[in-house]
Amino acid sequence: MTITWRRVTEDDFPLLRAWLAEPLVKRWWNHETTAEAVERDFGASARGEEPNQDWLALLDHDPFGLIQRSAFADYPEYRDPLARITQVPPGAMSLDYFVATSTLRGQGLGVRMISSMVAKTWADHPGAPCIIVPVAAGNRRSWRALEKSGFTRVAEGDLEPDNPIDPPHHVVYRLDRPA
Description:
Helices cover 34% and strands 28% of the residues. It is α+β, with helices and mostly antiparallel strands. It has a four-stranded antiparallel sheet, sandwiched between helices. Strands 5-7-6 form a three-stranded antiparallel sheet, with helices on one face. Helix 1 packs across helix 3. It is globular and about 40 Å long.
């Protein structure tokens, strides 16, 4: 079972709508799932009009998850609050992710997906010194997947939660580029 990657296109929006409505994804991503909302949130990236990149994770050619990859330098509204908690060096990247297919969760596929995107990030962004991922403290599955992917917890602190039902407390993980 090989994980490959494909950039999200507008043709993928119906799939994203279904995935974002899936209960566990909805719990942590808290996205609206109307066609208009998915177009608003993913359209510019799909058309290459913004620096954020949305990637479909494919398992033997079948999509099963999503990773958003971005450089903190492109999003100071996220970088600056995080920089009050931990150092965010120039060139630092970030990931946000989910395994959408519920039958594939709990089998280590999220760890493999994250690890695969880390390798792709090092190759695609040779100047990136590290990847930093803030996670809502209550999302233990997410931060455990990061730990199993080699990330280290470097900080904790308050950040704006994705879901307003969550407290602001976040744990922050970092993986430095290998020497």
